Amino acid sequence: MTGLELGALSLLVMIALIYMGMHVAIALASVSFVALWAYKGNVLLALSLTTLATKDSIASYSFGVVPLFVLMGMFVNEAGLGRDIYTVANSAFRKLNGGLGIATVAANAVFAAITGISIASAAIFTRIAVPEMMRYGHTARFSVGVVAGSSVLGMLIPPSVLLIVYGLIAEVSIADMFTAGILPGLLLSVLYCILILALCRFAPGFTGRAVVTDGGAGLGLATSARLMAPAALLIVLVLGGIYGGIFTPTEAGAAGAFAAMIIAALKGKLSWPVLWKLAADTGRVTASILFLIIAASMYSRMLGVLGIPSLLAEQLTGMEAGFTMVLLIYVGLMIFLGTILDSTSIILLLVPLFLPAFTGFDVDLVWLGVVTVIGVEIGLLTPPLGIACFVIKGALEDKSITLRTIFLGALPFALTMGLALLAVILFPSLTLSN
Question: 47 lies in which domain range?
Fold first, then answer.
């Protein structure tokens, strides 16, 4: 069996194992090991190669950025900053037709700039925004759809864990990836707001007619500033520190985590049991991410030994596939795999496979990273494995809202993400990369 045949078979087996319920990291590692064993015919050599991959994959100082940003997100969540941000946004937009939805998008955009984890946004705003939107007359379908759609901003607006993972796998600057995600993230936020306004104006049967009876003047500038101050402080500290050259991304994660801890403590949210719980949760999330990266390193090394990247490049050259065709295949695979895999897994599977082909076209890997993140994030909203939708279902207090309702509500936002993806592909300057 040739390397290409064995590589194709291993990919199919891997997807089948994942679809049957095996953990992604275990599927990646085990299939990579067996493929190396079958190709080399020597179990000790296969074991040696996978052991080296395990040792080398996360030895870099750069990987310290993962647990630090995760820990910062945990403290931010515990401090209740998500609720404060939504309260301010809701006060600002509540009288606009669709204002509650726009407030959810705005709050998610700000929350994304201090956490970078879509799943956290989905869980938090499901409990905050969905009951509020339904209380004022919006349909359940629209309410959960707005939360599902806007939650993906956490993986595009920096600091984003997914941008970090891509940067580590593609070996590009994480600071450059953060810079590249700013304009596309803001563009997607604006497109979501336009979508909400259009739906409320032209499809009231889908959105419901919200009636805001509060005739007050809102929170006022002083109260809004007080509620937003902690979030603004974290954004300036972390992103300002990175872009100002004061911190490396890893150091910025440490500074952000410490500042978030101080904010949570000042708000009276911390105790020794809470600190222990947050540390344990951070450890579980970090271990999960790093285990995936280790397994992806095994997979990448297996592909290299089998010669799959060069063989794939030769096949594409033989097909006379130009850059546009390769990009279409890449994006198509991302969206397809998004129906069965989570975002991190898709990046770990496809990026090592296609990176040599894109390098041959002299592609800007930072721009490619933004395209990749938007493409795989569409999968968070699509069945059968739209993880954001499942998180929302689990966080809902109203258990009568079905998973089908959530997917239907998220559909317009998934289509809007496709529009944002097209814009980034057609206008690479949006990523501010060279």
Answer: 3-431
